[in-house]
Amino acid sequence: MVLEGEEKKEVSESDMILGIQDISTKKKDKFGVFEDWLLENGAEFSSLELRDYPEVGDVESSKNSESLAASANDLHGSEPDDTGDNEMRGVHAKIGIPPGTVCMTIPRQCLITVEMGKATEIGQRIVEADLELDAPKHIFLMIYLLVDRQNTSSFFRPYYDILPKTLRNMPIMWNEEELSYLKGSYLLNQIEERIEAIEEDYESICQVVPEFGNAASLEDFKWARMCVCSRNFGLLIDGIRTSALVPHADMLNHHRPRETKWTFDSERDAFTITTLQTISGGAEVFDSYGQKCNHRFLLNYGFAIENNREIDGFCPNEVPLELSLLPSDPLHELKSAFWSRDGSPDLKRVRVCVSNNENTKSMLSMLRVIVANDEEMSSVSCSGLYMFRTAKDIRFPLSLRNERAALEQLLRIVRRTLSEYSTSLEEDIKALESDRFVLFSNIRNAIIQVKGEKEVLHHFENFAVTAINVMDLNDADCVSATVAVQHSQHHTIAVYCLDVIGPLRRKN
């Protein structure tokens, strides 16, 4: 077996001048060794093959941009690493595969599990120290990966050799220019929190196991955290819920709705992937990373999906809105006890998407409390006993006045949040339509992220404006306006006007 490090040392200047062909051949050897290793140890994936996508424009087999974006997880943000590796890859069907077919089997011995990390000397000392770590399961996978990859004769060497080297596509690895395109997004806070958590975990481990600092630098630790974060599978093995790195299975790109399912099969003593529908010969075989907001895809996997929609049209993209009582409110003290009754901080952050889901209902409930007057506050309590458990539980309007004030407060919050971005939604759309930014680059992913947030914010701006306008109409105009809303606005706005504003007007 030729190790990549040795191979790199043998590349001459003339080899480098030859360019893509030699690099491509080197990669083929690396991935060929990897697949041979799996097959020699009992893996089965005879109906599948790995394909390189040397040029983005050459990829015709992938269904849409989301699969290519997921493939860019191995692309390091479309930027070559220090080995010149800038390919995207996908797993494809060699032949037609019917539904219900186990198309991939990876035996237990080829998996790296949490328990293997705990069993290492460093892992045992971490367990004995009972450290409070940000992501305990991830940590033990990271420990095994970081320690074992230093062993040139490791059983997992072929797997280590095909892992990405830099993960420059992960936001915690971005430079200042790339991060600047996220200005106004709460994702910047999450990136900083992730970096701080990784640094704290590293320092805590080094305090308990000082020699770990010699085995892995902080940068190595960051790389391992994001490698594990983007590749691990949650499994039930021998009755124990664990997480594992599963070679080859972690190379399937993302697509919704899901076309395959995976599990640990106790009878086979192996990880398996089974098709849920017919996959044509030559087509890419996908995994689903789940229905997620783009901020989760970007933070944890290093890509963003430009059209992040489910088959029914639902978009899971979210934006966090910050809600708090008004300091100048004369009822601040009265409201404060109710506001903090659930034990959450005074500043409440709620993630909302274009939906009438629980988070949207909680947001409207808290807005009703923020703007409530004395009479309205008394309607949510009775003889000092709260009718509503928390400030998030007021699921119907208190009065027409209160509902209007709540919508006006929502409008102020949304517009203030929009003002914190450095670009408008229209500018983001134009930037993505232009050829200014390389497909799947970090900057393009950042623009996709903030564009999605602004779309949600503009929805709620329109939500508030439309509802307030309907409130102001006379009875005759209100009926025709509500019908028009049903035909021209998002269904959540129409439902709100019909089911909330309509009854309020009749009652008033």
Molecular shape:
globular
Q: Tell me the radius of gyration.
A: 27 Å
* Distance between the amino and carboxyl termini: 81 Å
Largest beta-sheet details: 3 strands, antiparallel
Number of distinct helices? 21
Residue runs with pLDDT of under 50 for 5 or more positions: 1-26, 55-63, 73-84
Helix amount: 40-55%
Strand content: 5-15%
Q: Pairing-aware structural class of the strands and helices? A: alpha+beta
Q: Strands of the largest sheet, in order across it?
A: 3-9-8
Structure notes:
The chain is an alpha+beta fold and 508 residues long. Helices cover 48% and strands 12% of the residues. The chain is built from 21 helices and 14 strands. The longest helix is centred in the C-terminal third of the chain and has 30 residues, at 442-471. The termini are far apart. The relative contact order is 0.10.
Q: What is the element layout, followed by pairings?
A:
Layout: H1 4-9, H2 13-18, H3 20-40, E1 48-53, H4 65-71, E2 88-93, E3 102-107, E4 112-113, H5 114-119, H6 121-129, H7 136-148, H8 157-162, H9 176-180, H10 187-208, H11 212-215, H12 218-231, E5 232-237, E6 240-245, E7 253-254, E8 260-265, E9 270-275, E10 286-287, H13 294-301, E11 319-323, H14 332-339, E12 348-352, H15 358-370, H16 374-378, E13 381-382, E14 385-386, H17 400-419, H18 425-433, H19 442-471, H20 475-488, H21 491-507
Parallel strand pairs: 7-10
Antiparallel strand pairs: 1-2, 3-9, 4-6, 5-6, 8-9, 11-12, 13-14
